[in-house]
Amino acid sequence: MVDGPLIVQSDKTILLEVDHEQATEARHAIAAFAELERAPEHVHSYRITPLGLWNARAAGVDAEQVLDTLLNYSRFPVPHALLVDIEETMSRYGRLRLEKDPQHGLVLRTSDYPVLEEVMHAKKVKPLLGPRIDAETTVVHSSGRGQLKQLLLKLGWPAEDLAGYVDGTPHPIRLTETPGADKDTGGWQLRPYQQVAAENFWSGGSGVVVLPCGAGKTLVGAAAMATSSTTTLILVTNTVSARQWKDELLRRTTLTEEEIGEYSGAVKEVRPVTIATYQVLTTRRGGIYPHLELVDGHDWGLIIYDEVHLLPAPIFRMTADLQARRRLGLTATLVREDGREGEVFSLIGPKRYDAPWKDIEAQGYIAPADCVEVRVDLPRDERVAYAMADDGDKYRLCAASDTKSDVVERLAARHRGEQLLVIGQYIDQLDDLAERLDAPVIKGETSVKERQRLFDEFRAGGIHTLVVSKVANFSIDLPEASVAIQVSGSFGSRQEEAQRLGRLLRPKSDGRAARFYTVVARDTLDQDYAAKRQRFLAEQGYAYTIMDAQDIPNPA
C-alpha cells in the first residue's frame, strides 16, 4: 500500500488530499477522466462519470491507463467492483460504429451482436434505421446521423463515428509560419501543443479542443483550416470576436480581406471563409430561423465553433444535420451550466485534446495568476433587508451591495497605473463603479464601434481602467490586462469564472503575474455561489486566498 494523495471510493468519488506532495501530479492525471465537484481547503472531491470516461477513451486514454492512475495514487486499495465497472464502461465506447459502406451508404456496425439488437429495439432509434444488412450491420438514414448518436449516448452505447466527411469546396489556405522564428525575429510558428491539438483533431475527424484562455485556440483553428484547405464557416459569440478572428487569420494565414466575410447583425457577407455570430444565426422570425441557410446551404468543408460550451439550443439542432461535415469545437472549459455536455460529445464530437492550465503556464505561454477572494460584511440595514427578501431577490441584494464599491475603490488605488478590469453582472452597479473610478463602461447597449475603440485604447495603454459587463466574458483579447476585480456574476457559473480569469492570462511583457480579485458578501448566497464558481479553476490548480476587506489599506 502506498501513501498516495487519493482515496478512491466505491460510489465513484475520488478524494484528493491537496497538501500531499504528489497532489499536483495526481490532479493532472485524474483530470483526464474525472470531474471536480467540491474544492474546500484541504480535500477536493471528484466524480467519475460515464461521459468523462468516454471522453477520455476518445482522446486516446484507455482503461488500463485510468486504472493504473487510480492504483498508483490511491492510499487504500481501490474497490475491485469499481475497477471492473470503469473497464466495462470504457469498453462501451466504439462497440457500435457508424461507417460508410460502398454499397449501402451510412451503416451502423458492431462486433457485439446483442448490443446492436438492444439498440435496434429502442423505440426512438427504430425510425432512424433502414434495412438490416447482416447480423452485425444495419443501414442508417443519412439524415438521422446526428440524432442517432445522441440517442445511442443516452442508451449508454456511444457510437464511434467513422463514416467520414464530405470534402467541401476546395479553397487554398496556408499558415505563414517562419520555422525557427522567435519574438526577436518578428516571425512566428505554432507552439508544440497547438500543433498536437490540431493533429489530434484532424486524425479524429471531428471533436473539441480544450485550451486555457490566452493559449491561442484561434491558431489551432487556423491550423485545422490550413490542413482542410476548404471553405470554412466559423461561428463566434459576438461581432467583436468575429473581427478579432478576421485580424488573426489575416496575420497568420495567406487569406486576404476579400476571402473573409462577416455575417452578423450589421453585415451579411458570404465568402470562402465566413465568420458568423451565434446571435444572428439564432434570430427567429415567424417561427423560423432565416439565417440557418448560411450553414446548410453552402458546401463548407469545415465548421469551427468558438466557445463551444456556449452553443445555443438552435445551433445544436442545426448541428445534428451537419454530421457529414468536419466540426471543430474550441473552448477553455467543457463545463456547461445547463448540463448539455453530452450533446457537445454527440454532435460536435468527443474531446480530442485537453491541456491543463498549469502545464501551459509552466511552459511560459500563459501568465501565472494569483486569485484572491475579498470578503465584505453587509451593514446591518442591508443584512436585515437580505434576511427578509424573497429567495429570488436575495442574490442581487448581496451581490450588488454598495459596500463593495468602497472595496473596489481601494483595490483600484492599490493597483494604480496597472491595466485593470472591473467585471460585473448588474448594470446599475457597474454604472456606479464607472462613475466612482472615472472609467468608461462597456455593456450590452454599447455599440460595436465604441466597444472596439475602448478595447483598442485599453490595449494601447491610453485607458488604464475599464468597467465591463458580461459582454466581455468571452473571446476578447486584452493582452496587457493584469488585474481584474469581479463584483458580481451569473450565480454559480464555473465557466464564467474561468473565462473572467482568462481575460488576464495573456503573458505580460515584463513577466509579472496577474491578480484576480472576487469581492464577496460574507454569510450570504454570494459567498455560496463564489465557492461553486471556483470549482473549475480549483481543478486546474488555482487556489484562492481569502482576505478580509478591512485588511485592504485606504488610498494614500
UniProtKB/TrEMBL annotation:
Record EC number = 5.6.2.4
Q: Where is the Helicase ATP-binding domain?
A: 198-352
Where in this chain does the record put each Helicase C-terminal domain?
403-556
Q: Which InterPro entries match?
A: ATP-dep_DNA_Helicase (IPR050615), ERCC3_RAD25_C (IPR032438), Helicase/UvrB_N (IPR006935), Helicase_ATP-bd (IPR014001), Helicase_C-like (IPR001650), P-loop_NTPase (IPR027417), XPB/Ssl2_N (IPR032830)
Keywords per UniProt: ATP-binding, Helicase, Hydrolase, Isomerase, Nucleotide-binding
Keyword field contains Cytoplasm:
no
Specify the domain of life of the species encoding this protein: Bacteria
What Pfam families has UniProt attached to this entry?
Answer: ERCC3_RAD25_C, Helicase_C_3, ResIII
Q: Which reaction does it catalyse?
A: Couples ATP hydrolysis with the unwinding of duplex DNA by translocating in the 3'-5' direction; ATP + H2O = ADP + phosphate + H(+)
PROSITE patterns given in the database record: HELICASE_ATP_BIND_1, HELICASE_CTER
Which residue spans adopt a coiled-coil conformation according to this UniProt entry?
A: none
State the Gene Ontology terms under molecular function: helicase activity
The main enzyme category here is isomerase
Into which family does the record put it? Belongs to the helicase family. RAD25/XPB subfamily.
Entry protein name: DNA 3'-5' helicase
Native organism is Arthrobacter mangrovi
